[in-house]
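ok so i was messing around last nite and threw this chain in just to see what happens. nothing serious, just curious
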Amino acid sequence: MTLNQTFHTSIPPSLGWRGAVRLQYDQVQAKTRLASAWHQAPLKVQRPFYPESDSICHTVLIHTAGGMVGGDRLSYQVNLAPEARAVITTAAASKIYRNPEQGTEQTIELNLESDAYLEWLPQETILFNAAQFKQILRVNLAPGARWLGWDIYRLGRTARGERFLEGQWRSHTEVWQGDVPLWIDRQWLPGNATILDHPHGLNGCSVVGTLAWLGQSVERELIHELRSLWTQANLPGEVGITRLQQGLLCRYRGHSTADVRQWFTQVWNDVRFYALGQVACPPRVWQI
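result:
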């Protein structure tokens, strides 16, 4: 089942940018290569590179417009052939500008064939006050395929004293392996002070993050190890780690994108070693 068969956009087709990316990865003689890359403005794809080994292809996506405004709709489709391995990130933080009249939408479809491996690691998304943003993510895993992905959101430009008091953020994620749902997650956050400040809402926090690892069962020892990473880091904020039937789930609620990125990177490193026997290799573009 494809993304277009499952979800329907709510944005009229005549408004805003229609950016798109289509990537196809193959595996030939133990090397993963970007066999085809098609993009439509304002999205672009950098030349793939191999900072670790030929087996893992790193790719950086660029949004040349700098941010999304009312009516924009972006779509991504990534296909990995059997045994292909890839890391995909973005060149900079994504910005969702104030759009009280027209919402913005991003759809992502990731298809992994047997024994493929994908790490989907975008940089953070900044929601300006009065932004309306919806993300739909569907991951289709064949037997033996594994996926690690994260999302980090900053609600309001807090450095300017801005809070997310208007607008809304929606997120709909589904991860399937064949006809079996491994994880379905729906989130909705309308911008208002009550939800931002309530202990059962964001408890005054402006940054939230989710990391998911799906497609492989994990031992309890790994969960304990990941929890200890947060304790040892001694960072402010709140986190939770849940063991799933075929993976794990990490949540963050706090005030710092740097802190959540640090913790998620440590989790990613441990999961990568658990899954592949290799340490993680953070993309250099994160240091710019």
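not much to say yet. The chain has one domain: 3-287.
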